[in-house]
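We include this case.
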Amino acid sequence: MTTTDRDARGTTSHGNHLRRYRSGAGTTRSPFFVSISKPTQAGGVKRVVHGSGNVPGFTYNIAGRVVGRAALPANRSSWWTRFGKRSFDFCFASIALILLAPVLLLIAALVKYSSPGPVFFRQMRHGRDCQLFSIYKFRTMVVSDSAGGIVNQTKEQDDRVFRIGAFLRRTSLDELPQLLNVLNGDMSIVGPRPHAPLTAIGDTFFETLATSDPYRSRYDVRPGITGLAQVSGCRGAMWSRETAIKRLENDVRYVAQQNLLLDVKIIVQTFVKEFLTGKAH
């Protein structure tokens, strides 16, 4: 991803941390088929960084990596949120990976042939309880060596996207490797979409908005491959505070209303609106 220039004092530590961890370097991955990903414990924090550039509400370790946020409200007492949703996710992802295996292999070959670089794109994202995890996608952009930490969002007709990558983005096929994240317990099929650390929204960061009241409940659940916000017209880049707030409101509404029927409805709408129409970017 390319970066923008910001105050060097405010971004140096974040830039270093993102260059190390955006691709998943230095992280320990649990094996696939593990249903629960344990949040980072407070005891693992070496040092709390209070210098300029840290996003309010987050705790950073000695490497400048976001490791968590205290006192998150949780509502995980219902049968669906405790057992049903995870069982549904695991079964859905397992079946989808088996059925889509030929398609995944074909896409991998096309990506490798179309542009120099790896088949998969890995980036650190905030998950449940603000825990960082490495998300998987098919690579759709040319490989670049970022020099800083601010994440520029992808826009329409982005010159970083190569031809096959553009098709994958329009049809959302680049998201299919996240089924592996679902099996590993980092993600759900349906939930709030995870965002990269230091995603810039105008003159602020997405984390700053998302961890403020009343939106912080979006971190009470696993992030999703798709979500209520995406099928409600909030897919794509967030260019203003207003667009980000609209997405967060839908995320909070999903967390409060989540159930099996709602998940199935969102999955069907995603298939119709994105995979069939090809209007994503």
In short: The CA atoms of residues 90 and 245 lie 30 Å apart. The longest strand covers residues 120-126. Confidence is low (pLDDT under 50) at residues 1-23, 25-75.
